[in-house]
Write a structure and sequence with these properties.
The protein has 319 residues and is α/β, with parallel strands linked by helices. The chain has 2 domains: 32-123 and 247-314, Bordetella uptake gene, domain 1 (D-Maltodextrin-Binding Protein, domain 2, 3-Layer(aba) Sandwich); 128-221, Periplasmic binding protein-like II (D-Maltodextrin-Binding Protein, domain 2). It contains 11 helices and 11 strands. It has helices spanning 4-25, 46-61, 77-84, 99-105, 140-149, 161-173, 185-193, 204-213, 259-272, 276-284, 294-314, and strands spanning 35-39, 66-70, 92-96, 116-126, 128-132, 153-156, 178-181, 199-202, 216-221, 246-254, 288-293. Helix 6 (161-173) links the parallel strand 6 (153-156) and strand 7. It is globular, with a radius of gyration of 22 Å. It starts with a helix and ends in a 5-residue tail after the last helix.
């Protein structure tokens, strides 16, 4: 039986725990100014749209606005380095995907992943094989067969994740593609639309509107199973070329950022996942609304880094 003294002690403990949780959720005096979010790619791409979608939601929860800054170049290394070397005070964030891990594995991004701390991830895309609607290639098999006969030009950001993905698919098909440097995801899409290149390896969210308008066609998705957003599109494995490549929308802060500030930002990103505007944006862009807290993201980044290291060594991609 619990006596009055025990109830008082339990009440005091509950008050203390509640106070501690609130203190962790809202660090004193933070944020003191706008939080700068660097997107290590150009405007209009999947990462840029994701950052600006969450920007609108986070602005409601913060006394200061979030400022999104595009810093493309170097296979995401320029933007990633900007944040890795920034003041670790919680007012600087990087919003990007596995391209950062790829750049680190290739030696392009220094100081590498050790310069960043995971905050959270807010959605997952799967890469796909996309061509112009007027392309003579109706299936991934057609594209691979054409690559065996001659040059197939693919839009890439050399050293970036779409370049790595093109190598993964080429390896599965026993062929080579001719990479054409086009820059950001949005620039690569424009190059296929303008028929300067034959194929792009990108996420459905980059081409949703063009597929809907009939200007582009998805040949295959690079996952173990079909996408619920495109159930009629086969996987690469179904076409006979098992290849997997995903894009996870991840947020980092500089190494050494106070843990209470990281925890506060993680909680706000998680809360934003329930914002109707964010929910609708993710759905409309065919992004799987999967939230990953910082601790889980750490483990995912470590596992992905090992895979990227192996891939870089195998294809001699170290810079």
């Amino acid at each position: 039986m619990i006596n009055k003294r025990d109830l008082m002690l339990l009440g005091a403990a509950a008050f203390t725990n509640t106070f501690a949780i609130k203190a962790m959720a809202q660090p004193a005096g933070y944020p003191q100014r706008p939080v700068r979010v660097v997107v290590a790619s150009g405007p209009g791409g999947a990462s840029d749209v994701m950052a600006r979608t969450f920007q609108r939601s986070l602005d409601k929860a913060s006394p200061h606005p979030m400022v999104v800054q595009n810093m493309p170049g170097g296979g995401t290394s320029i933007g990633a380095r900007e944040i890795a070397l920034a003041d670790p005070d919680g007012h600087h964030m990087l919003m990007m995907h596995e391209g950062v891990i790829s750049a680190a594995a290739q030696g392009i991004f220094q100081p590498g992943m050790s310069g960043l701390t995971s905050v959270a991830s807010t959605g997952r895309d799967v890469y796909s094989v996309v061509v112009h609607a007027a392309s003579p290639y109706a299936t991934l098999g057609d594209l691979i067969a054409a690559a065996k006969r001659g040059n197939i030009r693919t839009s890439v950001n050399i050293g970036g994740l779409n370049h790595m993905t093109s190598l993964i698919v080429a390896d599965a098909g026993g062929v080579s593609f001719r990479p054409v440097q086009t820059g950001s995801g949005a620039d690569s899409v424009r190059s296929v639309l303008g028929k300067q290149t034959d194929v792009i390896f990108t996420v459905p969210s980059d081409v949703t509107s063009y597929v809907a308008s009939g200007d582009m066609r998805i040949l295959a998705v690079l996952d173990e199973k079909r996408s619920p957003f495109a159930p009629n599109v086969p996987t690469a494995a179904e076409a006979g070329f098992p290849a997997v490549s995903r894009l996870t929308h991840m947020w980092w802060m500089p190494k050494g950022t106070p843990t209470d500030r990281i925890a506060w930002m993680e909680s706000k990103l998680k809360a934003a996942m329930s914002d109707p505007a964010v929910v609708e944006s993710l759905k409309s862009r065919m992004i799987d609304a999967v939230f990953m807290p910082g601790a889980d993201m750490d483990r995912y980044v470590e596992a992905t880094n090992r895979k990227m290291d192996d891939f870089v060594k195998r294809f001699n991609l170290k810079q």
